[in-house]
Design brief:
With 153 residues, the chain is mostly helical. 42% of the residues lie in helices and 4% in strands. It is built from 5 helices and 2 strands, in the order αααααββ. It has a two-stranded antiparallel sheet with strand order 1-2. Strand 1 and strand 2 form a beta hairpin.
Length: 153
């Protein structure tokens, strides 16, 4: 009502007649303009969200707003608008690629032992070389050294 009559009368007189403070009227105007600006952001955010198949979250949508429209928007504002719209990124599950070499029970493709490698030890610590574990600490083998610095056979 004040908007319609403010061209004929002063804002001060209209606010006094309606029993509204001038600061309250201007606060209402600012909030009304802000809501209109958020509507613009809502449309753009929804467009980006649908364009990217609902996989973009608020951080990537913020970057897209900058890239597509040149709009520098705080990530918290984008998050707030997305929460208001009830949208959030769909988290895609990582695709599972079965590997038959790793699963000897499930796959028929176990590679043959062409090199005749020994995969199992005959006795405890028999396959380890150049040292051993003593009290859960590795101790390398000590080799006797001759006077001139070469190893004894």
């Amino acid at each position: 009502m004040v908007d319609e009559l403010r061209h004929r009368h002063s804002v001060k007189d209209l606010c006094k007649f309606l029993g509204v403070s001038r600061s309250g009227y201007y606060r209402y105007l600012a909030r009304k303009n802000k809501l209109g600006k958020d509507k613009e952001f809502e449309e753009k955010i929804l467009y980006i969200y649908r364009l990217r198949n609902k996989t973009y979250g608020y951080r990537r949508i913020q970057a897209e707003l900058m890239r597509l429209y040149g709009l520098r928007v705080n990530h918290k504002k984008v998050l707030r608008i997305m929460q208001k719209l009830g949208i959030q990124a769909v988290i895609r599950r990582r695709r599972f690629y079965p590997n038959q070499y790793r699963n000897p029970m499930g796959g028929k493709r176990i590679a043959e032992n062409l090199l005749n490698r020994q995969f199992y030890a005959r006795a405890a610590e028999s396959k380890m070389g150049h040292g051993r574990y003593v009290d859960s600490r590795w101790q390398p083998d000590t080799l006797p050294v001759c006077h001139h610095g070469s190893f004894q056979q």
